[in-house]
Q: What sequence folds into this?
């Protein structure tokens, strides 16, 4: 009976890992499509005025887009986590329904693979969080723009991309759907 409870708990955890991975995969892939393959993580840019004598900021200009590998690594890591969680959930459910037990070797290999994926997820989440904070710092000029990063997703930045949901996409990807978290709110 204790084995069944343990297998059931494992199956539930794998299913939750699958859901959280899915919650990350969807917004990251949508952002890649919206930005036409450009990566906003670690992007450098500034606001330029059409008339330099007037201090009004009019247009955001990207000096250098972020490395595509930064966005791809987060997406690939979440896809790997999604597939691995689905495979483990299915196998654990199979063990639970059929009454089979895994071997010690299977448990050890499962531990190693899961630890490696956790390490990759930690690295990817750090890259996404730091890179997105750098984007928000660039687009708000570290808080000197009268809009927050979240408000600027509603402004056409004239970058030849669809920036209408970038904040929502990365806020969801960073926290797995928990509201109220993400990069610090700056500006008015």
A:
């Amino acid at each position: 009976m204790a084995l069944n409870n343990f297998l059931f708990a494992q199956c539930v955890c794998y299913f939750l890992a699958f859901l959280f991975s899915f919650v990350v995969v969807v917004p990251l892939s949508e952002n890649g499509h919206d930005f036409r393959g450009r990566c906003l993580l670690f992007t450098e840019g500034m606001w330029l005025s059409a008339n330099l004598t007037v201090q009004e900021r009019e247009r955001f200009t990207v000096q250098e887009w972020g490395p595509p590998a930064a966005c791809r690594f987060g997406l690939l890591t979440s896809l790997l986590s999604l597939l691995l969680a689905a495979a483990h959930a299915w196998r654990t459910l199979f063990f639970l329904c059929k009454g089979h037990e895994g071997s010690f070797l299977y448990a050890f290999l499962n531990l190693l693979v899961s630890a490696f994926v956790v390490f990759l997820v930690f690295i990817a989440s750090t890259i996404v969080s730091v890179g997105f904070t750098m984007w928000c710092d660039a687009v708000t000029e570290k808080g000197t723009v009268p809009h927050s990063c979240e408000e600027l997703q509603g402004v056409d930045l004239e970058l030849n991309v669809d920036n209408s949901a970038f904040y929502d996409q990365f806020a969801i990807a960073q926290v797995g759907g928990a509201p109220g978290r993400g990069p610090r709110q700056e500006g008015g």
User: Anything to note?
Assistant: Strands lie at 39-48, 59-66. The chain is about 60% helix and 10% strand.
